[in-house]
Amino acid sequence: MGNEVLEAVRGLLPGIAERAPDVDASGRIPEASIAELVAAGFFRLLQPARYGGREGDPAEFYAAVREISGACASTGWVSAVLGVHSWHLGLFPDAAQREVWGRDLDTLVSSSYAPVGRLTPVEGGYEVSGRWGFSSGCEFASWALLGGLVVGAEGRPVDFMTVLVPRAEYEIRETWDSMGLRGTASHDIVVDRVFVPDHRAMRNFDQARLRSPGRKVNTGPLYRLPFGTVFTMTITSSVIGTVAGCYSAYVDAMRDRIRLSLGGGRFVEDQFAQVSVARAASEIDAAVLQTERSVREIVAHARRNERIPMETRLRARRDQVCGTERAIAAIDILFKTAGGNSLHRGNPIERAWRDAHAGSVHVANDVERALAMYGRGEFGLAVEDNLV
């Protein structure tokens, strides 16, 4: 079923690619692009079957993300994060899922997971206040997943939670003006003393230990997977896809390029250019293969309803950040060898270079932190992190 969606998505790619320069220049994705992806069933790939979703294989979702990102990085990034939220919402209590999808199965949810909000316990739930940045695609969403710290009686943090807030109860402040991923419109969200009932709040501790309340109703293997794998692989898939799309554009552009210096001649006859293409292609392939292997093994454990070993989860995080690192290495090779023409603003290679580097600084792509966690695990030391 996921392949059917992937084919539908591929039919949309020429139009998405044609709009990409304007997305970068205007800082906005056209509503038509999101509407087409909704109609293609993309946002239902990881959505529970109980609410009209396909409840599919994450590998199929990541493949679709890579293809969309290759056509337009901003559209791919927003589609990826909105799409993975359909999975994350499936981990919440069923009452929360019903509130979001009860009237419209195509309702979208944005996020800002940083624990910058203040959650004060009150009867039946929490009073929530805060300002969150980087909520990609928030203009297309009717709800937001927001991170916050629960504040105890002495004013000290006692827990870390994610809460679900409806669009009517938060304000979007247009702040996004970035060097890359310009079209994601990753604006700020502001909440001022809003009541969030218990069923729309989830402890990150329970989530990290695969004890999310949504598993009581969504019993399939998809909802036995770690957030630290599913979400972070989503981010990396977008970066890899952006670079893979740039590689294709690079090869097409360079086939007819004539050097204006270094003795002239056709670019494709230059042995150094040939080596650069080989190195970039290898880095992209390695990034895809490494991430796909880790996802496949974790999904296999979930399908057998087995405990997912911590070493496997840590390896998935290692492979995920190294996948991003490899993608960045590839696009740096392409950008460096493309010549001065690639410096012009709006050039596909220049745009993809900016977009990939912008995506690489997401907290999910903190290479040193993830590799240190893997190293701790290999040495038999305890690893405590919500992104494993």
Describe the fold and architecture.
The protein has 388 residues and is α+β, with helices and mostly antiparallel strands. It has 3 domains: 2-103, Acyl-CoA dehydrogenase/oxidase, N-terminal domain (Butyryl-Coa Dehydrogenase, subunit A, domain 1), CATH 1.10.540; 109-203, Butyryl-CoA Dehydrogenase, subunit A, domain 2, CATH 2.40.110.10; 225-378, Butyryl-CoA Dehydrogenase, subunit A, domain 3 (Up-down Bundle). The protein has 11 helices and 7 strands. A 7-stranded mixed beta sheet has the order 5-6-2-1-3-4-7. Strand 3 and strand 4 (157-166) form a beta hairpin. The longest helix has 33 residues, at 271-303. It is globular, with a radius of gyration of 21 Å.
| Beta-strand content estimate | 15-25%
CATH architecture of the largest domain: Up-down Bundle
Q: Remind me, CATH topology of the largest domain? A: Butyryl-CoA Dehydrogenase, subunit A, domain 3
Briefly note the structural class of the backbone. alpha+beta
Q: Unreliable stretches, pLDDT < 50, 5 or more residues?
A: none
- Name the CATH superfamily classification of the largest domain: Butyryl-CoA Dehydrogenase, subunit A, domain 3
Helix content: 40-55%
Q: SSE string, helix = H, strand = E?
A: HHHHHEEEEEEEHHHHHH
Return the average pLDDT rounded to an integer. Answer: 95
Total domain modules: 3
The main sheet comes to: 7 strands, mixed
Shape: globular
Question: What's the short version?
Answer:
This protein has helices at 2-26, 31-40, 58-71, 73-89, 94-101, 204-208, 227-254, 271-303, 310-337, 348-360, 367-378, and strands spanning 109-122, 125-135, 143-151, 157-166, 171-173, 187-197, 201-203. It has 388 residues and is of the alpha+beta class.
